[in-house]
Amino acid sequence: MSPAAPATLTPATNGAAPARPPLTRKSLAADHPTWCPGCGDFAVLAAFQRTLERLQYPQENIVLFAGIGCSSRFPYFVNTHGGHFIHGRALPIAAGVSLSRDDLHVFVFGGDGDGFSIGGNHLVHTARKNVRITYVIMDNFVYGLTKKQTSPTSPVGFQTKTDPTGALDQPINPMRALISSGATFVARSQATQVAHMTEMMERAARHDGFSVVEILSECVEFYPGAFDAANPRKNGALKLIEEKKHDGSPEDAQRHDLSDEVAAFRLAALPWPGVFGVFYEAARPTKNRLEAELIARSREKTAGQSELQILQSAFARLR
Amino acid sequence: MVKPNITSLAGGGAASAGQPRSIQDAVIRLAGDSQDGIQTIGGFLARLAGRSDQDVMTYMTIPSTISGGPSIFQVRMGTGDILSAGDWADVLVAFYQHSYEDHIESLRPGGVLLYDNDHVKPNPDDKRFTTIGVPVTSRTIEAVGGAAKDKGKNIFVLGLLARIFQLDVAKLTGLVRERFGGRTEDVVRNALLAFDAGYGYPADNLRDCFFRFEAVQRVSSRPQVTMDGNQALAYGLIAAGVRYGAAYPITPWSSIMEMLRTELPKYGGIFVQAEDELAAVSYALGAAYAGHLAVTGSSGPGLSLKMEALSWAVMAEMPLIVINVQRGGPSTGLPTSVEQSDLLQGIFGSHGDTPRVVLAPKNVEDCFYIALEAGRLARQYSTPVLILTDQSLATRIEAFDEPDLARLMVEVKPDLTERGADFKPYPLDRLTRHAPPGTRTASGKFPNVTGLEHDEDGHPSANPAMHAKMTAKRREKIKALGAELALPEVHGDREGTVLLVGWGSTWGPIREAVERLRQSGLTAGQMHLRHLHPLPSGLDGIFAQYRHVFVVEMNDEGLYGFGQLALLLRARYANPAIRGINKTDGLTFRVSEIVDGVTRHLARHDLRETVPSFRR
User: Fold this and answer.
1) Which of B74, B270, B459, B587 has a Cα at 20 to 30 A from B148?
2) CB distance B161 to B45 below 8 Å
3) pLDDT per position as a tens digit, A145-204
4) Residues of A numbered 109-138 whose beta carbons fall under 8 angstroms of chain B's beta carbons: which are they?
């Protein structure tokens, strides 16, 4: 898999347009985040700004969308075009943007409730359709904006206002759900690891297809210490996935082949806190490309005709 | 040899001395099963009428089953304006015994019953009709032969009808060739064999039953096109500049999305079949946000699911066209029947104060033009615009003057010109002009569109004064549209006893009803509303010209005794003269039902006026 950049880039990234000031954290800064002090999402924001600094897309061609939740306030905090949509539907609105404007770089930000609960159906189908979008899920295992209710990723036994005696329902396994839905780039990171997050987001953005990064991002208010087991500074262990280098060495046989879906499922099934890095990456035609090819085929028959002429001949057949 | 049993009733098919009886229009009802292809011949007759510069209107019912079940197709064709599909059939073609039994009462006394005597045994004691038995099934098998069995008996009947009505055979067989031309030569040949067998059926004795349409005198120089309402809407959307959209399949909306899925790529666009209604409206809003004119659509249940996102579209001030092909409700209701019970959902269905534009087309031709208007309004006012059409318009075929596409077609491209230093995404003192992504700004700050209440810069704001101001802004822009709308034309008497008010597909039957009322000596007018929200200003001036205002709607009178538009008009104008004529049988209005409704209201009213004790 070659993580190719989207097929259509604007002149600025091709180096053809006149030079413009580079994207910096300063030019990308917008409103000051409204998150609680100590929230993991601050680090995700910093890592994303660092990612954009690396990617250097034309600023006006970057689009951020989000649904509802603490993390879904993200678009207000980055100085790009964007929108704050309704709960759970950020993926389909972003897919509408991506499919109708091939010149844009579309990112979606949201939480575990937005992505896996109310928006779960859209996750499955956007993955299946492989729409060119990068989706960052800030997973904190709890509903924070509404002040501590059970989330689809809350572990069994976690006490919330809606489960005062402890959560009863089996939580979603995000990696497994994403791989089985057909996402073509699936990665997992941790909000205390800015460099790792940045690497994952950059690779996700460069992936030609539906790319998802789940980031464990602690809610210090309603689920403090949730991810300590994966935080070396809290005596946890951050175990990273070793990717296969295809160098023929004996140790390479033990490394993870990103295109191996079964191996990815095995990694996803590891006990808490599991492993971090890219679980799965596959090259599959995007819906963006398939629709463009459909348009090209449809237009072969009417080559050289204006849109008016096409419509006029349709009416002539109805006389 | 045919032995027509000719009725002696007045108005029967028999004419003197073997001369074809000259008629202005005829209603032909074809009754069979849904797999018999009666829609196909109905469509041929409609297309023929359109090509012959005749006016035409069709009406069909289809069973809500996967395959099979009784089905009818009614064609009314003739000269002059055809306003409804006809209350009574002049000719009933019955393929089966159940077709005969279920539909014989829809045949006008004196009308012609044409039946397949391989399957149908009419009641010999019923002398109201001219009855003609033809062995349709066995003659079709004889003509076509082979493994096709009785496939093609619809085309055989088409040939028979061509003979009876002296239709233009060259044009009809041309249509048959066009329809089946894409398939193998066998199919075309079999179809033409069946047609010839029907047309050439030894029917000399039938001559006395022949009809001939009066010569056509149309004023328009434009050719006619023939299509159904959903087709007209889809083409109207394309002409309006819609290139992107998304939807989820639901009857009777689906044929629009099927067409757009096929057609839009030819124009460089994309139509997405989304995973559900929520995703569908969201995809469409994504395309709107990206700077395009986009569409989503559904029928009642699906519109309910879109309501949250439509509320966002009002808040974020996004242009969008939303189509609702109404069907019988509530819930799954009657998926293949007609009702106008989504008006209040269309106007008020979302949470919060969400003023938006709601339009309704009056006939098939208007489906095309209303799509153009919806596109214009959505863009001008940066707002969602709902089009409320219905099942009867969706499936009804009409012929109308081909639109002047060169004059009407609109090109919509995202406006990516750099926005000046004074750009605000949500200005309080002027209409919102969305800046799509890709747009640079002089300030270097890029806008967010949002469903949170916001200030002029699009920042979230819970400031009480700001919410009041923004709520007023969203209201006032829609009110400004209401002030710009022309008053609807009044047809018939401009003052008098009765004003009939309608909206949507009831335009034709209401107009015919007004003519009948006037012929009976009553002063009556018709006012038809295409703009339901906002209402045009000044309707009260029209209402004041009449003693009674009856709102004719295919919906229930509700808990307070008024249909949905009547309720709205009473709330708006507090005028006690406004009352309703409603029905909820899932069928289109017969003209006689409207006339009877008026008569009933007037009888009650007169009773109250003349018998004072009645009030107690």
Assistant:
1) B74
2) yes
3) 999 999 999 999 999 999 999 999 999 999 999 999 999 999 999 999 999 999 999 999
4) 121-122, 124-125
Inter-chain contact B290–A299, Cβ cutoff 8 Å? Answer: no
For testing contact with chain A, the best of B51, B171, B267, B283 (most A CBs within 10 A): B283
Residue B235 and residue A97: Cβ atoms within 8 Å?
Answer: no
Reported ipTM: 0.94
Cβ–Cβ under 8 Å, residues B181 and B19: no
Reported as a single tens digit per residue, the pLDDT across A59-78 is 999 999 999 999 999 999 99
Residues of A in contact with B239 (CB under 8 A): 311
Q: What is the pLDDT of residue B20?
A: 62
- pLDDT for B185 equals 78
Range B490-615: architecture per CATH: 3-Layer(aba) Sandwich (3.40)
Q: How far is CA B437 from CA A63, A65, B289, in A?
A: 7, 12, 8
List A residues 288-307 in contact with B (Cβ-Cβ < 8 A).
Answer: 291, 294-295, 297-299, 301-302, 307
Residues of B in contact with A145 (CB under 8 A): none
Q: With contacts defined as CB-CB under 8 Å, which chain B residues touch A294?
A: 265
Q: What percent of chain A has pLDDT over 90?
A: 92
Q: Under CATH, which architecture does the B226-408 domain have?
A: 3-Layer(aba) Sandwich (3.40)
Q: Decide if B364 touches A, using CB distance below 8 A.
A: no
Output the CA–CA distances (angstroms, integers) from residue B529 to A314, B388, B507, B526, B566, in the order listed.
30, 12, 9, 10, 12
Read off the pTM: 0.92
Domain positions in chain A are: 11-284
Inter-chain CB proximity A101 and B438 less than 8 Å:
yes
Which amino acid is present at B208? D
The reported pLDDT for the residue numbered A4 is 43
Q: How many CB atoms lie within 10 A of CB A164?
A: 7
Half-sphere exposure of A186 (CA within 13 A, CB side): 29
**With contact defined as beta carbons under 8 Å apart, do B161 and B167 qualify?**
yes
- Could you give the 3-state DSSP secondary structure of residue A180? helix
The answer to whether residues B189 and B143 touch, using CB atoms and an 8 Å cutoff, is no
Q: What is the pLDDT of residue B614?
A: 37
Residue B202's pLDDT band (cuts 50, 70, 90): confident
Q: How close, in Å, is residue B311 to chain A by CA atoms? A: 10
Q: Say what the pLDDT of residue B165 is.
A: 79
pLDDT of amino acid B19 = 57
From chain A, the residues in CB contact with B459 under 8 A are: 31, 76
Q: Spell out where B5-139 has E strands.
A: 21-23, 25-33, 55-61, 70-78, 89-94, 107-116, 130-134
Instruction: Lowest mean pLDDT of A116-120, B96-100, B232-236, B605-609, name the range.
Output: B605-609
Q: Inter-chain contact B275–A103, Cβ cutoff 8 Å?
A: no
Is any Cβ of chain A less than 8 angstroms from the Cβ of B289? yes
Which residues of chain A are within 8 Å of residue B244 when distances are taken between CB atoms?
A: 96, 99-100
Chain B nearest C-alpha distance from A308 (Å): 7
* pLDDT of B64 over the 70 cut: no
**With a CB-CB cutoff of 8 Å, which residues 78-107 of chain A face chain B?**
79-86, 88-89, 91-101, 103-104
- pLDDT band for B50, please (50, 70, 90 cuts): confident
**Local structure of residue A118 (DSSP, 8 states):** I
Which band of pLDDT confidence, cut at 50, 70 and 90, is reported for residue B206?
Answer: low
Region A11-284: CATH code: 3.40.50.970
Asked if the model's pLDDT at residue B210 lies above 90, the reply is no
Which residue ranges make up each domain of chain B? 16-213, 226-408, 416-484, 490-615
Cα Rg of chain B, angstroms: 27
Chain A contacts of B285, Cβ < 8 Å?
A: 85, 93, 96
